Amino acid sequence: MSSICVEYINQRASHHEWPASPDRLFQAMVATAYAIDQADKFLPLLESCCTLPPDITAPVVADLSEWKTSVPVAFMPSKGQDRKWVSRAFLLQSTRFLSSRLKVWYHWNLPDECAELIRSIRYLGKREDVARCWLDPDPPAPNLFPMENADRYLSVPLSGRLAELQAYYHLTAMAPKAPLVGYGSMVMPSPWGEMILKRSGAVWSLAEAQVCARQFSRALLAKFPQGEIPSWVHIPHQQSYLPHLACVAIPEIGAYRNINRVVGVGVILPKTPEVDRTLIVRKLAGITDMPWDNENLASLKPSVWCRPSKEWETVTPVVFPRHGKKSGDLEAQLVDLFAKQGYPIPEQIQLNPSSDKKGIPPAKTFIRRNNHKPVFHAKVRWTERQAGPVLIGLEAHYGLGLFTPSNR
């Protein structure tokens, strides 16, 4: 059993998605089987491609290059153009120019009997995108996997796709697109657990996030009987550190939103076997001045704060343990904080006194318990996608040090 390797000989790929979707390759295999007059031999073998979405090994490439081409109306489609009044028209073309003869592997585990069919494939997409294909018995490890929280979506042939293509071919009609399946790279789990969000009962400025989170924490702890607060909810200041619940303030993020306004609060549960989610939900319901209705605010959807991403940036700044004595000390402290919390070490760290996000106050304007401690906004990047929540720093349990996935 071998995987399919596709090498772009002309160093160009005109298909809009990257890498080429598995369904595009599957259609090329079906068309090639008919072209070489071996459909009866190879089509039964291709049914194995329609069972599960394949893992993919693909390098990262540049974006599509787009340009407009002027063409006579005679070459335009009959629909959508009034040829009586238009003498020439423009077509939008796009091509991805590759830096070298890149290779992409589709881990379909086809039988060796398909080697002749795979070698007969000449291109994917346009005829100018010449490709060389073969069965590779020793492919590299995949870096794109089918998953729900995906950063791209590709068409994948599933059960019944071969019969659907044949039926539409006999009808001389274009077959519908195959179902989309999310693909993403490996996701590093967050050391934190579930994030439960509530609508705030009052209007707060984002600079007061720490005050808001502390008051919310006091209201939550007041719902427990005296002396019966579990250690995974709260630990006294004198005790040694144990993973426990964190309270955060949630700003209003999204298009046309006032990010300087706190619209909700939330608790982030630790990843410990003792956690009782039902208990926390019941205690939160007892805080009557904070309704559960989130008014369809995007900020109060956990996916906004937990979706996997390689790049993350702060909405509330990170409070550091001590001042840096030389260049790079603060970055080293942040690396140490991530390591102690259980996050992988970031490959890139950038600290700034102010945030790039419009509306977020400068770091020093945030109210905090330890005013003598250094505080900075941060942007970090990991080699693999990191799942949220991302929460770090001395004030992490009281509203500061909350990250959001970067949109860039």
Structure description:
It is a single chain. 19% of the residues lie in helices and 28% in strands. By secondary structure, it is of the alpha+beta class. It has two domains: 2-61 and 98-185; 192-405, no CATH class. The strands form five sheets. Strands 11, 15, 16, 17, 18 and 19 form a six-stranded mixed beta sheet that branches. A four-stranded antiparallel beta sheet has the order 3-6-1-7. Strands 2-5-4 form a three-stranded antiparallel beta sheet, with no helix packed on it. The longest helix is centred in the N-terminal third of the chain and has 14 residues, at 22-35. It starts with a strand and ends with a strand.
The number of helical runs is 8
Integer-rounded radius of gyration: 27 Å
Any idea how many domains?
Answer: 2
Low-confidence runs (pLDDT<50, min 5 residues)?
none
How many individual β-strands? 19
Beta fraction? 25-35%
Shape estimate: elongated
Topology, element by element:
Blueprint: E1 2-8, E2 12-13, H1 22-35, H2 39-46, E3 55-57, E4 65-72, E5 88-97, E6 103-110, H3 115-119, E7 131-136, E8 145-146, E9 152-155, H4 161-170, E10 180-184, E11 187-188, E12 192-205, H5 209-221, E13 246-251, E14 261-270, H6 277-285, H7 302-306, E15 309-314, E16 318-319, H8 329-341, E17 348-352, E18 375-386, E19 403-405
Parallel strand pairs: 11-18
Antiparallel strand pairs: 1-6, 1-7, 2-5, 3-6, 4-5, 8-10, 9-10, 12-14, 13-14, 15-18, 15-19, 16-18, 17-18
Helix pairs in contact: 1-2
